[in-house]
Amino acid sequence: MDIGIEVNSTIGENSFFEGRFAVNGNLRIDGKFEGKTLNVDQLELGPKAKVRTEIYASSVIVKGIVIGNINASRRILLLSTARVLGDIRTPELIIQDGVILKGKCTISHAKIENTKEYLEMLYTNKE
């Protein structure tokens, strides 16, 4: 089953990139990236990828290590080799058996500033 994305740019297995990175299109990382933010349409992190940043994308596939938050407007897929330390925000989250994840997950199609207050309000509303 091929779950990869069509890639426009790549950070190779023995490469290291540091800083802010914005890509028009899709990116695959097999090496190491550290920076404040990573902005990309679709992102695929290979099994040897090591990323320390705040990710903003439409969809993200993780097979490697991420330290930082992942924000996806469409979907996040964590494959069995994924190791994530950070919060996740997306409308769709798929997690395979074997994943290690430490963080808070917010799964919602709506962009809600304070999810806890919103859910408490829904609970207390009488209909």
Q: How many helical elements?
A: 1
Order of helices and strands: EEEEEEEEEEEEEEH
Q: Bin the strand percentage.
A: over 45%
Would you identify the regions where 5 or more consecutive residues have pLDDT less than 50? Answer: none
Q: Averaged pLDDT, please? A: 89
Oligomer: single chain
Helix coverage percent of residues?
under 10%
What general form does the structure show?
A: elongated
Overview of the structural elements:
By secondary structure, the protein is mostly beta strands. The chain has one domain (9-124). It has one helix and 14 strands. It has one helix at 115-124; strands spanning 9-11, 16-18, 21-22, 26-29, 32-39, 42-45, 50-62, 65-67, 70-78, 83-85, 88-90, 93-95, 100-102, 105-107. Strands 1, 2, 3, 4, 5, 6, 7, 8, 9, 10, 11, 12, 13 and 14 form a 14-stranded parallel beta sheet that branches. It is elongated, with a radius of gyration of 16 Å. The model has no long low-confidence stretch (mean pLDDT 89).
Q: What is the topology?
A:
Blueprint (H helix, E strand, L loop, with lengths): L8 E3 L4 E3 L2 E2 L3 E4 L2 E8 L2 E4 L4 E13 L2 E3 L2 E9 L4 E3 L2 E3 L2 E3 L4 E3 L2 E3 L7 H10 L3
Parallel strand pairs: 1-4, 2-5, 3-5, 4-6, 5-7, 6-7, 7-8, 7-9, 8-10, 9-11, 9-12, 10-13, 11-14
Task: Using brief descriptors, characterize the structure shown.
8% helix, 127 residues, mainly beta, 14-stranded parallel beta sheet, single chain
